[in-house]
Amino acid sequence: MSTPLRLGVVGTGYWADVTHAASAVAAPSWQLSAVWGRDAAKAEALAARHGAPHAGTDFDAFLAQVDAVTFAVPPHLQAELALRAIEAGKHVALEKPIAVSASDAERLVEASTAHGVASVVLFTMLYDPRVRTVIAQARAGREWTGGAGLWLGSALNDENPFNTPWRHEKGGLWDLGPHALSVLWTTLGPIRAVRAVAGAGDLVHLVFEHDGGRTSTASMTLRAPDPADGFSTVLWGPSGREDVTVDDVDAGAAFVLAYEELAEQIRSGERNHPFDVRFGRDIVGALASAEAQLATQAKETSR
Known about the structure:
It contains ten helices and twelve strands. It has about 300 residues and is an alpha/beta fold. The protein is globular, with a radius of gyration of 19 Å.
């Protein structure tokens, strides 16, 4: 068996602990080698829980201990640190969204191309075998006319581990939007235009135009009541309806698969993963367009 590759985790929060680090330990091709965080004690504690030999707050020292980096930090911080990692020649597993501006996302693409690094973006649902089957059917020619996603999250409710400052600032559009878009994009075709309408709070309704004239919709919020919490996506076409599994995905198993596919790219030298940094950039572009429309609507409403 090949020598394990060295993976480092950036971040020390809940998701870094239960998914990023735990999946790194479980992935056959990897050894969890280092943890970076802004709080040294938290980084050391996370490293100790998962058996990583290195931990600290010095990012350059952290990079020296790894072959690749998986990120579990807010997207604006990820964009900054991932650029440094890529420029140091490190391969990357990026959280969604990869950034919160089209320009930052483009910089990550340009750097990854210039430095020849492999990348995957951790769109959790796209690494679930049931979702992969639907994607494969679409690529094989199964015809869909449209689709709809309903993403009702309760992350901003009290005591939720995902109740974090960046989610309060960016809302469901940027947290759940990447999941919603990634599923519709990979089954109905690339999204060429988006129209956005705001609801109450962070509730957003989106209408997408895909290649080939197909259309779809998605609604999302992080402030749904706990009893309403849940995600769904349905596709429809000449052969009927297809409920896409998006609500009971095993995130740990999904991340293990993503890490293994990253390792395969590194060892083969190929840089053509379908869910790499370029796909992440395309998703950010659509979300940024929606955000700009919502900002314009808010200004007009306030006049």
